[in-house]
Write a sequence for this structure.
């Protein structure tokens, strides 16, 4: 399974490296959203500073939607789905590989956006350990849930609109948890943030298991 | 009965509920009638 | 082949010819070729989703709704603190309960469908979610109308309210996935995965939201919890009974509609197949199609 996961993740990332959609489109989009938030909320006042964790994670979620849709789309063209089904790759491995690839893109995005909020919003990254742990857990949560729901909508005509409708309510706890943890790390008491980190990790574990179990069924049943 | 306080809220709540549930019930019944014409009797096991 | 439907092939000969062996074998259960009639069997059975049982449930529901109006709006006393607005509770609390019941039905039926793959479970999963959505709207409506005079606001980021809002969004998404016009089997599988995750998602959302509110904004709104007793308790129980009967009635009828939809899809497919076969059989009735024999 892990070998299969490595293969699939390598394939997805290679396609990504060649097409450069994440670099050329998703990343600029994410930065643009950050700038738009600054326009919407007075950048000189205290509002932006207080809202920074929330804005950061909302931006991550929106950019993640694009990355997930992209990842799901890779398997639509040219009968890739059938090829995957016939390839004797473990479906759980395929799921893990795609999730890892999405997670890798998300980490890159989060680093970029982190630099963005430090530069543009003047955030002060204090509790580094908590920030890193939160990012890791939230990335895993978004990548696993996103890969599963991406497979659910792939191949449908309305996937662009259906994916956010299905995925965003599911990710609501991730947004809450990651925002609270960042809040604690940036301004509050870091100790308050660790339980939220635990929640994110539990979410990631749940969706890893659900995705690994369901992916085979989804590959077959379409 | 007329002398209820918050009569407006009560009326909106109760009548709104009636409209939602009743409307949905009518829609379901109508869909059932329309579909029944497409389906042979022996598949309508409850009839 | 058994029923000529309006949706059935507009071209080609009407598939009245007694189905050949192959065609009737492909037919769905029990439909015996051409004797049941080629026109909509309107006279044969009731052309609706009602039955003796649902009529009984329906009348009981109406009677208990009348009783609910009597108890909820007339007999039960006003609350000491909330006055008469407490009467929204007799609708609000039961409908919230049945909202969650509908979600459980969907998750359970989705799991059963993934396991057994029998179409009834699929229909039940769809039914549970749709009925639950109706009760979700009722819950949100009565809840906000109750909140306005009691808390001074239609909406507050209370754990229960937020959970209900997210749950409503989840149900809308699930039903949107079900509405899609794609291959029914693929749709059912995808919907079943979403449906199976419905209750776990609600639990996670509820946990996180409750935690969120309790950590960061404890007790901004003193929730008024009336001690419910006497006629108020009776009225609440009548509410549970009446809306439970309504829920049952809606579930049965909606389930039958879902069942009819599945059957209608199949009947349409059969009609189309029969038409194709009739076209194909036109030329070569008594020859192997692989041999290029000039048709007589």
């Amino acid at each position: 399974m892990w070998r299969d996961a490595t293969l699939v993740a390598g394939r997805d990332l290679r396609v990504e490296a060649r097409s450069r959609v994440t670099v050329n489109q998703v990343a600029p989009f994410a930065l643009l959203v950050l700038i738009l938030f600054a326009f919407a909320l007075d950048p000189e006042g205290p509002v932006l500073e207080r809202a920074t964790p929330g804005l950061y994670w909302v931006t991550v979620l929106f950019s993640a939607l694009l990355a997930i849709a992209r990842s799901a789309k890779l398997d639509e063209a040219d009968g890739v789905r059938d090829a995957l089904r016939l390839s004797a790759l473990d479906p759980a491995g395929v799921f893990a590989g795609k999730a890892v690839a999405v997670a890798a893109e998300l980490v890159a995005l989060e680093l970029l956006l982190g630099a963005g909020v430090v530069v543009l919003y003047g955030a002060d990254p204090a509790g580094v350990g908590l920030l890193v742990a939160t990012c890791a857990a939230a990335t895993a949560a978004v990548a696993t849930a996103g890969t599963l729901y991406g497979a659910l909508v792939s191949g449908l005509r309305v996937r662009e609109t259906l994916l956010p409708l299905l995925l965003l309510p599911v990710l609501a706890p991730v947004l809450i948890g990651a925002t609270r943890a960042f809040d604690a790390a940036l301004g509050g008491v870091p100790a308050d943030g660790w339980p939220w980190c635990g929640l994110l990790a539990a979410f990631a574990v749940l969706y890893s298991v659900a995705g690994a179990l369901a992916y085979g069924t989804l590959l077959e049943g379409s | 009965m007329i002398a209820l306080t918050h009569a407006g809220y009560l009326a909106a709540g109760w009548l709104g509920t009636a409209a939602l549930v009743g409307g949905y019930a009518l829609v379901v019944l109508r869909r059932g009638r329309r579909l029944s014409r497409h389906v042979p009797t022996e598949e309508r096991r409850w009839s | 082949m058994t029923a000529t439907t309006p949706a059935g092939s507009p071209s080609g000969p009407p598939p009245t010819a007694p189905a050949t062996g192959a065609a009737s074998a492909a037919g769905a259960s029990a439909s015996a070729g051409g004797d049941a009639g080629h026109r909509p069997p309107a006279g044969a059975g009731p052309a609706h989703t009602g039955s003796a049982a649902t009529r009984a449930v329906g009348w009981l529901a109406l009677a208990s709704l009348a009783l609910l109006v009597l108890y909820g709006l007339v007999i039960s006393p006003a609350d000491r603190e909330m006055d008469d607005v407490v009467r929204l509770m007799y609708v609000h609390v039961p409908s919230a309960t049945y909202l969650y019941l509908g979600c459980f039905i969907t998750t359970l039926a989705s799991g059963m469908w993934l396991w057994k793959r029998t179409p009834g479970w699929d229909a039940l999963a769809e039914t549970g979610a749709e009925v639950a959505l109706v009760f979700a709207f009722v819950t949100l409506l009565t809840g906000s109308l109750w909140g306005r005079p009691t808390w001074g606001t239609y909406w507050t980021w209370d754990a229960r309210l937020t959970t209900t809002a997210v749950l409503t969004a989840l149900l809308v998404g699930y039903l949107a996935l079900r509405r899609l016009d794609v291959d029914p089997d693929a749709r059912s599988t995808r919907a079943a995965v979403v449906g199976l995750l419905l209750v776990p998602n609600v639990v996670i959302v509820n946990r996180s939201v409750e935690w969120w509110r309790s950590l960061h904004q404890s007790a901004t709104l003193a929730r008024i919890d009336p001690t419910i007793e006497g006629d108020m308790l009776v009225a609440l129980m009548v509410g549970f009974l009446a809306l439970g009967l309504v829920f049952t009635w809606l579930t049965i009828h909606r389930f039958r509609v879902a069942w009819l939809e599945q059957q209608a899809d199949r009947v349409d497919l059969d009609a189309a197949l029969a038409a194709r076969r009739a076209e194909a059989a036109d030329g070569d009735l008594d020859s192997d199609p692989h041999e290029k024999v000039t048709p007589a």
